[in-house]
Amino acid sequence: MFDPLFILIAIAALGFLIVVHEGGHYVVARWCQMRIERFSIGFGPGILKKTSKKTGTTFQLAPIPFGGFVEIRGMNIAEDVDPDDRHAYPNRPAWQRFVTIFAGPATNYVSAIVLAMALYTCHGIDQPHWYGVGKVLPDYDAQGKLQPGDRLLEVNHVPLFLDSGTGLVDRVTASQGAPLTLKIERGGATMEVTVKPTLANDRRPLEELARRVPLMAPHVAMITRNCADPVWRIGIQPEPQYLAVKVGTVAAVQRAFTYPILQTKAIAAGLYGIVFGNEQADPGGPKRMVEEFYHAFKAGLVPGIKLLMLLSVYLGLFNLFPIPALDGGRLVFLGYEMVTRRRANPKLEAMVHMAGIMVLGVVMILVTLHDFHVL
């Protein structure tokens, strides 16, 4: 049963991403003295709209929630432009057009930094501290005894921590199949369960553990290197659980500015793995994003803000891709103009962006069908 309050929060979070991005375009375009005809959240005809008497800009809410747009005079592909209209987009200097387009993705990055700074200052830095149960694997003794989300506190009455002491993999391996008494925390209550390790040939869960929990990588590497024989496992895929550590203002600022850089590298590595490796793409549209926001904010304010930070970087990076009709595609033409000091053929540019719009439209439809499990 969905909670209406968290559905509204999720929709507001998605709207925040769009408003921040389009707001970047809007503010810089105004600063560059461009005439803005329309500021739209969503695509299609306006459902709710209001025109500013001061600027003449129409602000509207539209029904198709794939993003938004800022309509600047002279920016539409088939629009006739008065060459003497100094407030039209094509008649402004190339550098002003460049910074106006670049401002959308840049503002997404700035919003990620601001959110990170607020989170780190008020909440602290989350450090991996406990082992949690991410998944219970079938055909092992842990099945029916452990559940996803459980926190492992002790093994055989010895405290267990992810960031100090002997790790979980080492303790399970050292048992050589002897039953282990695990103290766990579940739903705020603690209990003990006994789990018997099983000899297994499959090392993929270990490799997944090393990938998801970098602190475990040396332990996994040592076991994989030193053990030609099958390894002992209790049948869970561990995941880190975090402890909030308070940091000073300077450290919070430093980490906030580092956050989008690290996330951009991680996203780029993931995309490289999808294109050139064996990783599978997991596309998601507005419905999927609202669902993710719903579950994140229902889990707590901190998970919700973390997801908002991450998707801010995703949106900024995606729009910088040199794809026709996206900000990155427009920046390619503007970069050419600034380097060569001559404008690209307007008809060619219009054809390229029109083709990009058509392709993106098809992609949006496919992603929506995927969201609703039609594909």
Detailed description of the structure:
This protein folds into two domains: 4-122 and 290-371, no CATH class; 127-244, Pdz3 Domain. Helix 1 (4-31) runs antiparallel to helix 2 (94-122), helix 1 (4-31) packs across helix 7 and helix 2 packs across helix 9. The strands form three sheets. Strands 5, 6, 7, 8, 9 and 12 form a six-stranded antiparallel β-sheet that branches. A four-stranded mixed β-sheet has the order 2-3-1-4, covered by helices on one side. It has helices spanning 4-31, 94-122, 168-175, 204-212, 217-226, 249-276, 286-299, 301-320, 327-340, 346-371; strands at 36-43, 48-51, 58-61, 64-72, 125-136, 151-155, 158-159, 180-186, 189-195, 198-200, 231-233, 236-245. The two termini are 25 Å apart. By secondary structure, the chain is of the alpha+beta class. It is elongated and about 85 Å long. A hairpin with a 6-residue loop joins strand 2 and strand 3. The chain contains ten helices and twelve strands. 27% of the residues are buried. 50% of the residues lie in helices and 20% in strands.
